[in-house]
Write a structure and sequence with these properties.
The complex is a heterodimer of chains A (about 110) and B (about 375). Chain A has about 110 residues and is of the alpha+beta class. Chain A has three helices and five strands, in the order βββββααα. In chain A, strands 3-2-1-4-5 form a five-stranded antiparallel sheet, with no helix packed on it. The longest helix of chain A has 12 residues. The longest helix of chain B has 17 residues. Chain B has a six-stranded mixed sheet, sandwiched between helices. Classes of the chains: A alpha+beta (about 110), B alpha/beta (about 375). At the A-B interface, β1, β3, β4, β5 and α1 of A face α1, α7, α8, α10 and α12 of B.
Chain lengths: ~110, ~375
């Protein structure tokens, strides 16, 4: 019952004692209470546990996590390449590193 | 599905596995607290893809598994009463009590109903004023806001026929209890992301400091778990021990204030017994005195309850992480999801059911994970 999954808010009902929503989980629609996520609006993604939204998904942070993972090879290889001689190619870094990835992989989120 | 598929990307997973191998220089033992995380780790073979010597110890974070036998026997005694509609999350129905389970009671005619949300139980109470409606309010911090709201709404509606059988447990005291144990092997924790979505992570900061143990708030998808492991190992390798947040897309340091407010309006912290572990001080929620009228334990006299665990079941040691299901002589032989002896084999968050679903230690072929997390050769 601790398994919460993110779903998209597709309908909001404000008429009852509690703010309720219909949340779409990849095609399966369920009712969820928004009492604990009062700021949520249509189209937002919420994490629902036993019929209650307990959190919303922060899109910026969601992308940042993926960016940091994509950047790992760049950092790891740069370190390994740093230990090599200048004749070694660094092309792998550019190929897999992604663009503009922040430094300090895995430490910036805390 | 958005926010799920991208965190299951096999290429990125392999990248994380490579990085974990690259940064690891020594053996380490990490505990994932939450049973949902255990299932993903085992199903995807993540624990087996880690460097030799890096071990995942599975934690007690399965609410169904740690609900004490006494509470389950009480639930069974209340559910057997003809005047009662007994409502529960679905996971509890097959959990064995001393002599039977809720599903068997239902088959024998008891009015036992599965609810998705505790608000459904409140609705059933409103629609059946002549019956007593009891909700089995179990779980960790994740279900507490929902369960608290059910009591709050029942009070608002003046539903005299609604009550709750409470068996709520809390994660941080259990982590401290594990760390206090003289046999503790845990060197770092992956904290349960959704528990922290509700409560935040300030409670974990003193634990990290006091026991010098890294704690990484971690999500539930394969990439989340791999990144959580990487962040924890980086801390271990560097000799740091702080709380970090891998699951930033869903968890804020302060947690969900609105949810916490309702939880503490309805519940207060008190001692709780954990199945397989025993009493842990200040490790659970009880109804506040002003909501005592909704306490099913006070409303129904269930007489003296004598409990008995199955003698072959080693769930206690498994829940504390000192043994794995593969150490159990009953696992896969006397005990299976179809015929469970103990709670960890029943629940979708139990360690034994996770191992069984993945075919670990069984003669039958192993379920194929989404992708093989072997190291990519580069």
């Amino acid at each position: 019952m601790c398994l919460g999954i993110p779903g998209k808010v597709v309908e909001i009902r404000d008429d009852g004692p509690l703010r309720m929503a219909i949340v779409d989980f990849g095609g399966v629609r369920k009712e969820a209470c928004l009492a604990y996520e009062p700021e949520v609006s249509l189209g937002d993604y919420v994490i629902v546990h036993v019929g209650f939204a307990i959190s919303h998904v922060d899109e910026e942070e969601a992308l940042r996590t993926l960016e940091m993972i994509r950047a790992i090879d760049a950092e790891g290889m740069a370190q390994e390449l740093g230990a090599m001689g200048p004749g070694e190619t660094a092309s792998g870094v550019a190929a897999v590193g992604g663009s503009g990835a922040p430094p300090g992989v895995g430490s910036g989120a805390a | 599905m958005k926010y799920i598929d991208e965190y299951r990307d096999a290429q990125l997973a392999r990248k994380l596995v490579d990085e974990i191998h690259r940064v690891t220089t020594r053996p380490w033992a990490l505990m994932e607290v939450c049973g949902g995380q255990t299932h993903t780790l085992v199903k995807q073979g993540i624990d087996e893809a880690l460097p030799a010597g890096v071990r995942m110890i599975h934690g007690p974070g399965c609410p169904v598994c740690v609900t004490p036998l006494e509470q389950i026997d009480k639930a069974l005694a209340i559910a057997a009463r003809p005047d009662v509609i007994f409502t529960s999350y679905g996971d509890m129905l097959r959990v064995p009590g001393s002599t039977t389970d809720l599903l068997s009671l239902k088959a024998r005619g008891a009015d036992v109903r599965i609810v998705y949300s505790p608000l459904d139980a409140v609705r059933i109470a409103a629609a059946n004023p002549e019956r007593q409606v009891v909700f089995f309010a179990i779980g960790f911090e994740t279900t507490a806001p929902a369960n608290a709201m059910a009591v709050w709404q029942a009070a608002r509606l003046g539903l005299g026929n609604f009550s709750v059988l409470v068996s709520h447990v809390l994660v941080p005291p259990a982590m401290s209890a594990i760390l206090e144990s003289p046999t503790c092997q845990v060197q770092a924790f992956l904290a349960a992301g959704h528990v922290c979505a509700v409560m935040g992570w300030t409670e974990y900061e003193p634990i990290a400091e006091r026991y010098h143990v890294p704690i990484v708030v971690t999500g539930f998808e394969p990439l989340d778990l791999l990144e959580g492991v990487l962040m924890a190992i980086r801390q271990l390798e560097e000799g740091r021990a702080v709380v970090e947040n891998q699951y930033a897309r869903a968890v804020k340091r302060e947690g969900n204030r609105e949810a916490q407010e309702t939880v503490f309006r309805v519940f207060e912290i008190g001692d709780r017994k954990w199945r397989g572990i025993g009493m842990i001080p200040a490790s659970g929620y009880h109804l506040r005195p002003e909501f005592a009228g909704f306490d099913a334990e006070a409303r129904f006299d269930v007489g003296t309850i004598t409990t008995a665990e199955h003698p072959a079941c080693i769930a206690g040691a498994i829940l504390q992480g000192t043994k794995t299901p593969l150490d159990c002589t009953a696992y896969g032989v006397l005990c299976s999801p179809q015929k469970p002896l103990g709670a960890p084999m029943v629940s979708s968050e139990g360690v034994c059911s996770a191992y069984h679903a993945a075919g670990r230690g069984l003669a039958t072929p192993r379920a194929v994970p989404l992708y093989e997390l072997t190291r990519s050769g580069r």
